[in-house]
Amino acid sequence: MPIEVTEDLILASMPSLETHVIVFDTEVVDLTAQCSDPVDLLFGVQLGGGTDIHRALQYCQTLVHDPGKTLLVLITDLFEGGSEEGVVRRMEELTQSGVRAVTMLALSDSGVPSYSESLAKKLRALGVPCFGCTPAILPELLSGAIRGANLEQLAARLVKS
Predict the structure, then answer these.
(1) Residues facing 103 on adjacent strands
(2) How far apart are CA 22 and CA 136, in angstroms?
(3) Which CATH architecture has domain 2-160?
(4) Chain center to CA of 117
(5) Is residue 3 very low, low, confident or very high in pLDDT (cuts 50, 70, 90)?
(6) pTM as predicted
């Protein structure tokens, strides 16, 4: 599920921040209205099968008002059921406009990332870090992303600790 965040998902209850929670399978669903507990919402949502990341990114792109102040967190296994080329093109458009983006890979029940390595490699080439993340390290990751930290280095440090 992709999450388009214009500041900090953890701080979604602050009125000065604009936060959007978007989930998808083959359809895109905007759950922003249910965002009172964003972390619980983030890790509790389950949709049906299928994946159309491109369609979800296309929707998220319409929500971006100030790219330089936008953080897009895409949570997915990167197994694209729609257009993989469209995902790369859309992510390239977003990042070139100034959006900071990070991909948190889906975790198996044993906590191991399970994902499309080829699409992850293409996103990393655009400067979009891709890594597995548990709920325990999500707040520090988002905080680092907002501060402008090197997300590859931060992720490596967080995953080791």
Answers:
(1) 74, 130
(2) 21
(3) 3-Layer(aba) Sandwich (3.40)
(4) 16
(5) very low
(6) 0.79
